[in-house]
Amino acid sequence: MEITQNQLEAHNDRASKAHQQSFNFIAATQQRVEEVISKLISFQVAIPSWALGTGGTRFGRFSGGGEPRSLDEKLADIGLLHRLNQSSGAASLHIPWDVPQDYAAIRQQAQHYNLRFDAMNSNTFQDQPDQAHSYKFGSLHHADPAVRKQAVEHNIEVIRQGIELGSDTLSIWLADGSCFPGQLNFRKAFQRTLESLQEIYAALPEHWKVFVEYKAFEPNFYSTTIGDWGQSLLFANKLGPKAFTLVDLGHHLPNANIEQIVSLLLMEEKLGGFHFNDSKYGDDDLTAGSIKPYQLFLIFNELVEGLDARGLDHATGLGWMIDASHNVKDPLEDLLQSVDAIMLAYAQALLVDRDALTAAQDNNDVTLCQEILQDAFRTDLRPVVREARLRAGGAANPVGLYRELQIRQQLISERGLKTVATGL
Amino acid sequence: MEITQNQLEAHNDRASKAHQQSFNFIAATQQRVEEVISKLISFQVAIPSWALGTGGTRFGRFSGGGEPRSLDEKLADIGLLHRLNQSSGAASLHIPWDVPQDYAAIRQQAQHYNLRFDAMNSNTFQDQPDQAHSYKFGSLHHADPAVRKQAVEHNIEVIRQGIELGSDTLSIWLADGSCFPGQLNFRKAFQRTLESLQEIYAALPEHWKVFVEYKAFEPNFYSTTIGDWGQSLLFANKLGPKAFTLVDLGHHLPNANIEQIVSLLLMEEKLGGFHFNDSKYGDDDLTAGSIKPYQLFLIFNELVEGLDARGLDHATGLGWMIDASHNVKDPLEDLLQSVDAIMLAYAQALLVDRDALTAAQDNNDVTLCQEILQDAFRTDLRPVVREARLRAGGAANPVGLYRELQIRQQLISERGLKTVATGL
Amino acid sequence: MEITQNQLEAHNDRASKAHQQSFNFIAATQQRVEEVISKLISFQVAIPSWALGTGGTRFGRFSGGGEPRSLDEKLADIGLLHRLNQSSGAASLHIPWDVPQDYAAIRQQAQHYNLRFDAMNSNTFQDQPDQAHSYKFGSLHHADPAVRKQAVEHNIEVIRQGIELGSDTLSIWLADGSCFPGQLNFRKAFQRTLESLQEIYAALPEHWKVFVEYKAFEPNFYSTTIGDWGQSLLFANKLGPKAFTLVDLGHHLPNANIEQIVSLLLMEEKLGGFHFNDSKYGDDDLTAGSIKPYQLFLIFNELVEGLDARGLDHATGLGWMIDASHNVKDPLEDLLQSVDAIMLAYAQALLVDRDALTAAQDNNDVTLCQEILQDAFRTDLRPVVREARLRAGGAANPVGLYRELQIRQQLISERGLKTVATGL
Amino acid sequence: MEITQNQLEAHNDRASKAHQQSFNFIAATQQRVEEVISKLISFQVAIPSWALGTGGTRFGRFSGGGEPRSLDEKLADIGLLHRLNQSSGAASLHIPWDVPQDYAAIRQQAQHYNLRFDAMNSNTFQDQPDQAHSYKFGSLHHADPAVRKQAVEHNIEVIRQGIELGSDTLSIWLADGSCFPGQLNFRKAFQRTLESLQEIYAALPEHWKVFVEYKAFEPNFYSTTIGDWGQSLLFANKLGPKAFTLVDLGHHLPNANIEQIVSLLLMEEKLGGFHFNDSKYGDDDLTAGSIKPYQLFLIFNELVEGLDARGLDHATGLGWMIDASHNVKDPLEDLLQSVDAIMLAYAQALLVDRDALTAAQDNNDVTLCQEILQDAFRTDLRPVVREARLRAGGAANPVGLYRELQIRQQLISERGLKTVATGL
């Protein structure tokens, strides 16, 4: 199903008066609203193909209905999201879950929805039915060179798929680690991983990047071979200029100061990409901004500061992606809420009075530093985000229109009640 | 020093136009603004006497200037805060740091500043110069009955002081615990503590309450004898109807869901009081709302829901107090920021559409539940908080006026640059 | 397959000389060795049926071979373990994974292996194919009375199954909770859960118990309706004398002092049962004693102290069970290691010089308290555990004999390489 | 006071029979005992001057009696420890707490006690009475160049003091950080710190090293400018070959895998030194091995493996030091317990069958890997540690002899009951 222009306009018309009132107020009281809107319009957050279905835990999964059954339907879902918010114009595929049958057709379909292909994700944390060697004890770090070779070749295959689709990034998340003390020689595991990554790196086309993701724990519960940003940065530095660290908000130990990590990776010119989600305990993969919205704002505050300091374009300087798991919500509603929270945090960060902040920092005026950040965060910028969305051709209220049009019910009638999307 | 009515009005006049504009906007778009204002005006947050000076850590303290040197000056400082925000109309004293010389004079002084005396705090976590027995190994839980007796008598003495001042609550925080496995028999420590508390309880006047605070760790680093809400509730239930649990936001293990604890204690009719602060790692005692403002809102959401469910008055149903330590900010500015963040979170919680939330919860419409809470949190209610403050006779911008009038500089010239307030 | 007496004796003969040497040394230097042996022999740890297969995470599962395909084969596996260690003489079943077809036959089989049926476990955290209502949004706490009724009836059915098998305990773990702020009214969720539990409680036969398990998080990532020991104890107290709290070592927030919780629950006469495992990050479900063996010892130290203080028999006073997930080891080897670590910790705790410890505690001689505990923990009591096992008819080295006899290979040839046990 | 040879021998004679019995048993059953003893004898753990007095928290300090009042008395205390255990043959001084009056006399005194001077520690986390600029807002990272200059000069002065004493290492722990979001520009703070460190680095004599310590939090509670091993390693790499990372066990976020960090820093040839202590919650500074002895063993397991892999001498390859705070024990007893736990963990790590472990790792035989480590850890190596101590000329039971000789009482009679050592 697709949303028609008439449906969109009717919805926006109904919202128009209230929106104008609130937007006029904020536009009258804030000076840089137009600049913020312009940046918001350019900013696109990639949607991972696996987040379009209901997620689960080791204790089970409670599927919803109408989940996409194929890569085609996944792109259709992302197309729907992008139609509604005009901020989700990129798809991040996962191999082997999303191997296209016909590249030209898939590229054309993406074009139809106005989507590009963001980072390609490889999978060496699960065994596929036809696989020669098991990843039970890891992949790129495995003691057995045959397993490493298989995993390296898989990653190179993912690059090939990405070339066909017009992607320019390989994103590697390794589950490799250990569950018990003694299971692993940490140094050898690091060095074997490095060698494997070097082989993959050598296969990268000229203009490609590789993102090296880190994670503190899960699915291994004693050690992870790329466990924190320090380890990821070591790999990225040893690999070369095409290698970067990828930060996933849920991949840290309790109480970690993620915004400081972001700032330092930008300083080192090694921050590559970003996985948005939120969490209270571990890698909970909850909706972005649903648990710690101020942290999300603080991270954007560092991103804006750091990208500007390096002269990077906000929209293209880093890879922006959601990585979440929707266990109890409609996945599409959840993704709309996530993108909305991200845009809001970005808008707030753009509004920070940076000159005043720098002056207050130089004076150690801690009270004022806090006031400046809180002033931006407490300002209700939803009308500005909405205005940007409207100007870009999206809906005043994406979740609202999604519900008005009963999109989920339509997807169920198209696809069935018992579908299960490939992926987590 | 005191702020004159002229100074206040001049400040408010300057702020008037901008305030009216923003307040009119919110008043036009939100229905229950007057009700919120009325509740905000009634809501008072007690200021602890020890938070008026610069705090420190075990690594040292960097004092600021003009700190209060006596109980008189502490009340004067709280009077200043209350003059500015009209929401700090209560003082919480700490014995022996704040033993009054002349009760009548102190009561008169408090009346002058329009302050009442909130909960009285005892201290058995430090040795005083003239003390017979040491609290090195605890107080109410101590193996030696003589130490317990001394600690019990100190608490009864604090009640006596409180009676003189017109307080009606004893607040007990015990540092009692152990630093090493084996140091303590947990069961005996619990039972000895219970006996001690029962003796103190027996000394409570008819209309008094006792608050039993819990804390996960620090200053003991292996166990704390009243370590969590479950233990505090056990004590409160065994003691009787005058005993309640006190929740300090910083006294939990990492990732604790404090709002759920608050809800259940209200359900059990055993939530007594609240210590506001914020933290990232432990009992960091930072400015309320400075790290996790959404958590603060969620806690107020439960407080409003639970107080309403029990038919309790928001202003008097619980004891509200700040407990923070200001290591790098002017303590008075910090306290103004804390009270402001508390009022804002309270206002946001009051604005939650409770009927809609209940309906969404009953339907398991998780997306909508989140939207309802986020809608209240994302609304900029600072104009409403400001309006309440102005109507109550406070300043449009308390920190702003405090700076305009150079109050800290005046306090320094009155009291000196090298004063150190008694307390932490 | 079963281990013959000849195989066992041949193994034990080979180990005999080295064992005697080490046992004689410890028997000569420790006074209470015989008493410890006698208690070790009585002590039995129940094996949960779901721990006999390879576990997994939400990211996948790497099955091993020869996993039990039926309840019969599960009992056979537990029989093997018990044959090897003589300390695993109880099975804990999980309904609906383990519904017996023929009770008499199953009871007879258990008798053959010398096993009894420990606590029965219900499952309302997953949907079964034929189920009328979904547990996606919880079970006993559900807003919809029809879902609660279904879940209550399931639990009552599990009691019925247990009666047939000769069990006397129902163990309830609820996944009920919420993933997002606002999703749940905590108070109503608690009260609905209480009502549901009361209906189940009413169906308990005279001599039965019900264990109420708590868990901090997972599979819900914002709140859990029975989230900590305080909440579980509230339920147990409101339910009545047959209700007890069950402690699972992995179900706590970071840094929790579990041994103190154990001590206080014993004090309150509400500790019912125990789930052993180990963890570094969350509910990692690793082999008992593999990460924090000193913590395991400290917990046993409290168990011994508390059971003795209440005059309870160690073997029957509480329900002892392993609850682990074996993702990278042979499940049977893992369980043998777990039971061995538990027996060792229990033996160490039995060896603590309690009179000396009490005296040191009363003197606040912290150095000595630590020395006393460390002395017991540092003593190598493996010969004592081995002696107890040998006297009971087990193997000198259970994992060793399991490997010598190539039991896994035999199970694979019997059952196949691609079996997947029902359960997690 | 000093312990006489007669006193020592009499104590050892009394312990001799029991020791011989237990040592003979272990020597008969373990093959590499002599090699372990030889390494234990060489291994020396430096004692920090500030750990000789009673520590405290921000809530207070409960002093013990007989604390050292001067650098002379501190060296005398370390001399006592070394006399007892022959493993504490180094002192780590802290400037300005330990500025010597007469270098030659101090060097002579150290020689008398058979002590060398280990790493010198600077202090820019507290203000000294005569200091021009305050460190309230940091030192090496400070926005004001004058503050940075003062801090740099202090560090250079500490190097000068160290040269006089024969030390060859400067150990820098920075409290620099921030308490509130916005207070600091992380990137600029990093870069200013780097510049300051470069100036200090330039002042290092030829054969000196500088250790850059990291810490997750405290005394700053939002960010720390050198917050984790990744940041410390960045600094060490940018500084040059004389710069190394220092690991303090208590300076990590909850659940961190410290042994993996240790392994990787050794791999990078950037591990410089080690601060031993133990903790449950934060930087609790408890006795080494008192909370997580298995973790201590696992860390030593990596140290032994990594030092051997690089061909480094265990005794001199890294800087070994205790950094603890003794709040409830006699500091000297606490230090004896710490050193003993360190020696025990080191001995256990030396006993790990490394060839077997490597083979098991290469086979992914996780069960066996665990068995190998647990076998070493569960073996009672106290007789081996004792034998090493006796051969080196120490006491059979250091804490026992300390108590028999009533050393604390003698120190009190020499120094008084109310002394307070300089330092924390």
TrEMBL record, chains A, B, C, D:
Question: GO MF annotations for this entry?
Answer: isomerase activity; metal ion binding
Q: Where are the transmembrane segments?
A: none
Gene3D superfamilies the record matches: Divalent-metal-dependent TIM barrel enzymes
Q: Which UniProt keywords apply?
A: Isomerase, Manganese, Metal-binding
* Pfam families for this protein: AP_endonuc_2 (PF01261)
Q: Output the InterPro entries linked to this UniProt entry.
A: L-rhamnose_isomerase, Xyl_isomerase-like_sf, Xyl_isomerase-like_TIM-brl
Domain Xylose isomerase-like TIM barrel, which positions? 100-285
Which protein, by its recorded name, is this?
A: Sugar isomerase
